[in-house]
Amino acid sequence: MEPLLNLAIIWLAVFAAVFAARKTKLTPVLYFLAIGSLLVNLGILPEQSHPFIRGFAEIGMILIMFALGFEESTSKFLQSVRRTWGIALFGALIPFLTAFAVAEYFWADTNLSLMFGLTMTATALSLTMVSLKSEHLEHTQAATGIMTSAVIDSISSLALVAILIPIATGAGPASLADVGWVLGKAVIFFGMVTVVGGWVLPHDRGALDRYLPWIKGKGIKNLLSLGEGEHATLTVLTFALLVGLLANEFGFHPAVGAYMAGLVLKEEYFHYLRHPEENYYQRTKDIIDNVAYSWIGPVFFVELGTKLVFDWDIFVGVIPQTLVLLLAIFVAQVASAALAARYTGAFPWNESMLIGFGMLGRAELAFVVMDIAYVQHRILNHEAFYTLMFTAFWLNVSVPVTIAWWKPYFEGRKRLFGPDPPGG
């Protein structure tokens, strides 16, 4: 019964977080993280979560990513890739070099410094997108730029893991074949998803139907229309899970696959011939959003907050290192992403700054790297581990705070310099 009790505590915490968010007009994500940390440090939640809770949180993250992809347009995503390459490149490279330099200054250990750089590379996409959604900014060009850049960074970070982990653990540098295989798997996976989205799911495949007449008129629409659309939610969630499992087989996080699954599902697939006036797409989307953002998804963020367990002696000892790393990464991440968005992606300054703030979060990959470096291989010492943990936590906290702060400037209701616009 213990895991069920923990789940009940987490859901009560979600209620408290939502209430606090409404009172303070901040995103609930901030309170999910803070309450998770508070509960574990008070001993209300265990430091080592039960496998049931960890699995529940994992499902929550997958659902959040699928819901975000389900809202996105495929063509808009592909167009954004061409526009956001600079954000992905400089938004990852500069924080990597910054974290490496800070670690070298304090610990002068190259292997440890490599892990610092790797931990600070990839953006916590789910945290950022939920924060943007809370401010009703999830459909902006800046949000799409963040989303695309974060996905690209996740792929490139996997390549860095393949290269740097063997070096840092003393196993020797990874061969070109190893690195090439990681990149090759990324190409194969996204190619497979593209094929599924372009030729398997559609009801009408154009010229392909003439060469393969036996598939003509068959597609995802046939499954979605079963039982007058009653099983549409089950169909799309099953599809998301299968693509997530496929991504996992290729070495990616299942959440990346779930996002891609949502991306290739189009609204037109939900237009059934029998009841064209019924908006099955919106009905399915409402169900998915409720599950992802109200009662399963928040468990992921509360669970993430429980990763920060305070050891007060170490906490006091790493305050200087944490402050230096936090300030350095904050400035480096915002500046590199914003400048890249402005000068390589031609985003206006209000969107460029939003992209910079949106790239601050550190979550999934960061904790995976910390687990490898601290738990499995002892590359990180206690002080370095807690420095990374505290820095990642406060970077995550800074995402909803900075996005909420920047929103009136983004919308033109306030100006940084000069008087505010009339009615701003």
Overview of this protein structure:
The structure is a single chain. The protein has 424 residues and is mainly α. The protein has a single domain (2-410), classed as Na+/H+ antiporter like fold. Helix content is 74%, strand content 0%. The protein contains 19 helices and no strands.
Defining traits:
mainly alpha; Na+/H+ antiporter like fold; 424 residues; globular; 0% strand
Oligomer: single chain
Work out the helix count. 19
Major sheet description: none
Number of domains: 1
- CATH class designation: Mainly Alpha
- Tell me which CATH architecture applies here: Up-down Bundle
Helicity, in percent? over 70%
Taken from the alpha-carbon principal axes, the silhouette is: globular
Overall pLDDT confidence: 83
CATH topology: Na+/H+ antiporter like fold
**Which range does the strand content fall in?**
under 5%
Rounded to the nearest angstrom, the distance between the terminal CA atoms is 53 Å
CA radius of gyration is 22 Å
